[in-house]
Amino acid sequence: MRIFVLLSRVPYPLEKGDKLRAFHQIKELSGNNEIILCALNPMAKLDKRRAFRELQPYCQSINFIDLPWYGIIWNMKIAFLKGMPIQSGYFYSRRAKRKIKKLLNEYKPEHVYCQLVRTAEYFIKSDLPKTIDYQDVFSYGLKRRCEKASLFLKPFFRMEYKRLLKYENKVFDSFDNKTIISLPDRRLIEHPQKGKIHIIPNGVDHAFFSPMEREKKYELVFAGNMAYPPNVDAANFLIKEIMPLVWEKLPDAKVLLAGASPDRKVLALKSNLVEVSGWLDDIREAYASARLFIAPMRIGTGLQNKLLEAMSMKIPSITTKLANDALNAKNGEQALIGDNANELADNILNLLEDPVLYESIAENGYKFVNSEYSWEESTAKLEKIMKGK
After folding, report:
1. pLDDT tens, position by position, 221-276
2. Please, are residues 1 and 349 in contact by the beta-carbon 8 Å criterion?
């Protein structure tokens, strides 16, 4: 089958969750299908040659469509006036639409796969067989951000939340197949037929994210895109509320905040006990350099890839119920779960002070993600959905 894949970002480098999911799905789908890749490129500095080189083995055709900043501003204004989500306008361009139409005429795909509702506008009226990957629930993510936003930003987040809520339902009714990353995320879709959404979880490249022997320079590591608001919030929660409780008993405990594009609020957390690394060529070095991994997520939706990766490397992991609802690890057996600073600090101290618990959580978490999270299996399910099996 020839599949036209439309993405809101070029899926390389793999520093964001949507890029990671897209890259591995393309890689797996390419085994039995021809992939025509069309990736939007909004205002991003991108090494196109390297991205092309990494994607070329899996795609018959690779097309990057730049979205210049002046066009983005104009299209956001149009979206605002039409009552559409602002982020739909951010990624929609009539110029890009013409290029996509030309590619469709040239390659005549049998199926269209759109990742995230922000790309849906390009195909919402198309008669081609099509699948939309919600991935996670943008509207609910905006709702959570609205609760924590400043008085100045609250009206904007509230408006965007309501628009996304309405648009997610419109997308549902316009696409043949709908997929999402987890059961908790599907429950958050406000559509009477949301049970028809197929759950396609993420996987892990277990051969790449495997146990590594490294000097343990840090007691804790938290990794992710450090410009992403839920990660910025989690980093501040960790350093300002959780770690002071840990430092009362372990005053020399060091923390690594690792990941691309650290926000100024993350950079401000630097100290003699807190390192902010920024972009790392190999994130495995960050995981392997710490005794524990923690993902103290309080906002955001979807499955946390960082948890899968750390557990696949046999790093004992700690997180919140919010993140574990998608992961579905057994508390006290495969990971430790806490919902406030006191509980999370206790989990950190227990793992650092109890070698038996430490080894048990590391081993059980490793076995759990290796048995439950596979790109091969999840993408095979996606392929069957596209082929109507």
Report:
1. 999 999 999 999 999 999 999 999 999 999 999 999 999 899 999 999 999 999 99
2. no
Q: Specify the pairing of strand 218-223 against strand 130-135.
A: unpaired
Q: How many CA atoms lie within 13 A of 294 on its CB side?
A: 33
Note whether residue 312 is domain-resident: yes
What pTM value is reported for the model?
A: 0.90
Q: Is the pLDDT of residue 347 over 80?
A: yes
What is the distance between the alpha carbons of residues 277 and 86, in angstroms, rounded to a whole number?
32
Q: Which of 208, 198, 180 is nearest to 370 (CA)?
A: 208
185: CATH: 3.40.50.2000
H/E element, 326: helix 321-327
Q: How many CB atoms neighbour CB 202 within 10 A?
A: 22
Identify the domain containing residue 106 by its residue range: 2-202+375-386
Q: Which two tokens stand for residue 268?
A: 């401000």
Q: Which residues contact 58 (CB under 8 A, 6 or more apart)?
A: 26, 27, 29, 30, 35
CB neighbours of 209 closer than 8 A, spacing ≥ 6? 284, 287, 308, 309, 312, 313
Whether residues 51 and 109 fall in one domain: yes
